[in-house]
C-alpha cells in the first residue's frame, strides 16, 4: 500500500533534483511514501544518474525512475501520473518541481489539510530563494515573491503542480494522460488540468504550512525574463480560456482586460523613473500581448530553455 506517491519531473537539472530528493528523504512522516522521477531528457539522462546515486547510498523511499524521451512538461507529468497510479493502493499523488526543496513537515501538512477539508486537490506555499546578489528593484517584483495565501482552507482553484497533493481517485476520474500534451513547452498544462477538474466539480484547498522553497537562478532574475514570463502567462491563460469556450468568446471576454493592460501598463511605465515599477507596469503590456498572441495562433515555448542546474 502507498499512502502518497511523490512525483518529480526533471530535465538537465541534476543538482536541483538531488536537492529535491534529499529534502524528501528528510520528511518527518511515518506514512508509506514512494518517489517517482521522470527524466525528460532521453539522451543525457542526468536526472536518472543523480537519482541512481542516491539509491546506491540507500535512499529512504522506494525510488521509481522513468525516462520520457519526447520533450514536454505534460509528457513527463503524464508518465509520472501513470506510474504513480499503478502503485498498489496509492491514495494520493503529490508533485513538486526539481528546483524545489520540501520542508520536513510538508507531506503531513498536506495530508492534514486534505483530511480537514475533503479536498480533491491541495496546494501549498512556495517560498523563494534568489541566487546571487539581487538588485533591490528585482527583489520587489511580484513574480519573485513567495506564493502564499496567508491562511489554510478551501479555495476556488489551485493553479500549479509546483506544490500540490491530488487524490488518486480524482486523477483517475479525469482519464488517461490528464495533462494536455499540446502545451508541451509553453507551460500552463497544470492550470488547464485543474480548471477542467474545477468544472467537473472537484474541490480545492490550500495548506499554508505545507511549504517548499524554490531556488530561482540568476538567469531568471532579469528584466527580460520577468517580462517574458508575463507574456507567457497571458498566452497560456488565454489558451485555457479558448480550450473551455471558443476563440471568439475568449476574445470578447478578455478584450477589456487586454486593452486596459496595454493602455494602463504602457502609460504607467512611461510615467515612472523607478526601474522596478516600470518593469511591473510593462509586465501588464506583455501579458496583454501574450493574450493577443494566443488568439492569433502564436506559441511562445518558454520551457525550451532550461534555467538552473
State the main characteristics.
single chain; 309 residues; alpha/beta; Spore Coat Polysaccharide Biosynthesis Protein SpsA, Chain A; 2 domains; nine-stranded mixed β-sheet; 19% strand; globular
Question: What overall form do the CA principal axes indicate?
Answer: globular
Main sheet overview: 9 strands, mixed
Examine the coordinates and then state which fold CATH places here, giving the name of the CATH topology of the largest domain: Spore Coat Polysaccharide Biosynthesis Protein SpsA, Chain A
- Rounded to the nearest angstrom, the radius of gyration is 19 Å
CATH superfamily of the largest domain: Spore Coat Polysaccharide Biosynthesis Protein SpsA, Chain A
Indicate the mean pLDDT. Answer: 96
Task: Summarize this entry quickly.
With about 300 residues, this protein is α/β, with parallel strands linked by helices. It is about 45% helix and about 20% strand.
Verbal overview:
The protein is α/β, with parallel strands linked by helices. It has two domains: 215 residues, Spore Coat Polysaccharide Biosynthesis Protein SpsA, Chain A (Alpha-Beta Complex), CATH 3.90.550.10; 82 residues, no CATH class. It contains ten helices and nine strands. Helix 8 packs parallel to helix 10. It is globular, with a radius of gyration of 19 Å. The chain starts with a strand and ends in a 14-residue tail after the last helix.
